[in-house]
Amino acid sequence: MSNDEIFAAAYREHYWAVSRYVARRLDGRTSEVEEVVAEVFTVAWRRRDDLPDAPLPWLYGVARNCLANAVRGYGRRRRLVDRLGNDDAAHGRHIAAGPDAEPPGAWVHDALARLSPADQEVLRLAAWEELGVEEIAVVLGCGRRAASMRLHRARHRLKAEIDRFPPALTTGTTATKEQHHG
Description:
The chain is mainly alpha-helical. It has helices at 3-25, 30-46, 55-84, 106-113, 117-127, 133-140, 144-163, 167-171, 174-181. Helix 1 (3-25) crosses helix 3, helix 5 crosses helix 7 (144-163) and helix 6 (133-140) packs across helix 7 (144-163). The radius of gyration is 20 Å and the shape is globular. The N and C termini lie far apart (67 Å). Mean pLDDT is 79; it is low at 87-96 and 173-182.
């Protein structure tokens, strides 16, 4: 099989997995998802001679780098818009969530959000992308032992963050939530 055919097969087989990977990390900014995924496969096309036999972890690694670039660009655009005074709240497009808008299990996402970006990523690779330690190592560009250690430590830190929540928050009972805040 030629490198072009190998690339085409990788594209067909892994496009949606890469799209989901990117979408989960961009929190609904759908217009940017397509741009980042296109950049991932542009890089893969340029480097099609380097595509490994199991390309998905490698593609996730490329996506991780493309996401970092997109996030930096988004931050620059956001700061520019803020300086110009053209933010959504100023134009009445800011929507405040009601008190019952919190989805079930949101406390897990809150705990995850308090971890470092590196811890968040290794946990997402294991949970969301369902990658094993060797595949995580490929995505992160490190050795298997380092990936295993990062995952172990991140899980430990996540558990510590979850343990900080009052038991009522993790079971979803609002009556007990109010007792803690009222």
